[in-house]
Amino acid sequence: MTVSILFFVLAAAALTAALGMLLSRNPVTSALWLILNLFCVAGLYLTLNAEFIAVIQVLVYAGAIMVLFLFVIMLLNLASLPDLKRIEWKRIISFMLGMGLLAMLTFIIAHALDVMPDPLSLDLAAETGSASSLAKVLFTQYAMIFEVIGILLLAATIGAVVIAKRKPV
Amino acid sequence: MNLAWYWTALIAFGIVNFLLISASVLVYAERKVSGYMQNRPGPNRVGPFGFLQPFADVLKLVFKENIVPTAANSFVHSLAPMLMVVIAMASGALIPFARGVVIADMAVSVLVLLALTSISVYGVTLAGWSSNNKYSLLGGLRSSAQMISYELSMGLAVLSVVLISSSLNMVTIVEDQGGGYGIFAWNVFRNPIGCILFIVTAFAETNRAPFDLPEAEQELVGGYHTEYSGMKFGMFFLAEYVNFFIASFVIVTLFFGGYLLPFESVLLAQFPGLEDSILLMIMQIGTVVLKASFFAYLFIWVRWTLPRFKYQQLMTLGWKYLLPISLVNALLVAIGVIIFS
Questions:
Q1: Which of B111, B117, B126 sits opposite A55 (nearest CB)?
Q2: How close does chain A come to B151, measured CA to CA in Å?
Q3: Considering just the CA atoms, what is the radius of gyration of chain A in Å?
Q4: What total of structural domains would you count in chain A?
Q5: Count of C-beta atoms within a 10 Å radius of residue B292
Q6: Which domain holds residue A135?
């Protein structure tokens, strides 16, 4: 019961934050909305008993990547976009109705094709979502893929360093 | 150990008040210690030995006018000091103060602590940006660059501890240090390089001297809090002191046996009646506070002894020395864990 109430509160907050991020005209405000959104999603993970993923979400996205974003936005000193002159209600309403219809159709088709995964119970999720069980799967079953992703990230880092390096004049 | 929710609430209430009061005691301690180091008496007028000085200061701050610059973003300008205090206080929830006395005993509490450390940069950065002042902005930018640089080394130092105790839970990490060799099972003896790395990075993450570049007075007026007055400035001050006190607790928890008494296993073997008693709990709380007080003193001691780093020295130290050392240390600890277990 508490979990479903929390879900709706957090989901509403996450949606509001996402909309705020899209609609705000100031880049720093946009970034702040996005940070709020990331925290709400972390809260959603917590209601699913996935503590580890929730903490990693905050640590990596809110703690590292968004700090970097904010840093760059402040360094560039971007000006705010001009305020919207008029709001086109017709377009907004038709967009929302269209998205609602799409969501319903997707749900019905997925239901009919029986591709929706069975929901796990929360106790089982707590068992499989812990750091040790996650690590066990990641470093045995998917060890090769994990290493390949590691090399890919390293290559990206080296590429960034090479591009940023000062050219000899 | 599952406590009823009202016990947890009571412990949380106690810890928050303890942190608030300890901040004012630390302010007094800092001024007294700096006074003696500079061969002057320090505050000695308000109350016996000047002990009521911090309370007088807080009263003054509360009565001062709250000034918000005209061109500032007023919402973010008010949000920043609140963020600082809330995040600083939240870390207190993860510290085990005695066996069973911890607010949030999560399975991944070490990671939560790292996450809180990494988001605490928002307070400083947003304060710097929202003030609409070039000195404030420079302070905020320096702070975020500094924190990003030292976070990695800090994470790797914590990783080496996690490898030794093979758990992400703070309580398990503390209990793991209570081995049969008295104090020699403490992580500081099993992982000395990691301990030094963690202490250095903790100084950097709490923006204390010699890493206090975000508020370097000589260059930046006051850094990120130049445009703050009254109790909002007071909240930055409070957050700084709570931050470094919490950092001392974390150092003690990860490396110096946490709430464990020195030679606790010997003591318990001598007096079996002591196990799970109130007396042991009080002694453990006393131990962890004493150990943390020593490190709080270390923070003050270093501030009044060492001069501030230059900016490029700070970056060189972080990226060219601390990061490689911590990488090698994590690798060595991992090899050691495989050999000895």
A1: B111
A2: 9
A3: 21
A4: 3
A5: 24
A6: 130-169
